Structure formats: C-alpha cells, structure tokens
Amino acid sequence: LPSYTSRKLQPCDVAVFAPLKAAYRDQFEQRERGGVGTIGKSHFTYLYCPARTRTFIKKNILAGWAKSGL
Length: 70
Fold this sequence. Notes:
This protein is mainly α. It is 77% helix and 0% strand. The protein has helices at 6-33, 41-55, 58-68.
C-alpha cells in the first residue's frame, strides 16, 4: 500500500488487529499457565486460529471502516 494510505487504514488496526493481538496473547498465556514453557512456530496456527475467529467478526471490521470514513 502507498504510504499515504496508512492514515486512512489506522482505525482498522485499532478496531480489528488490536483485539486480535489481545486474543492471541490470551491464548498464549493460557498455554503458558498450563505448563508449556516454549511456544514454537508449530503452535502459531493452533493459537492464532481461535483468536482470529473471536476477533475478525463483522462488527469489528465494520467499526474499523466506519472510523476511517470510507
């Protein structure tokens, strides 16, 4: 994307990707509390998929685009 588009897309970062980051962190911390000391590349999709499913919802996506004015 051209550099000048980042200002327009920043609300998507706040409305969609910030909740994804928090949900992924929750998944990670659950595993850590469960005794998993190291989480490698092979665990990424196992943790990412439920986090993405919980956060990439229509409400969050529409909120991001509404905030961008597009």
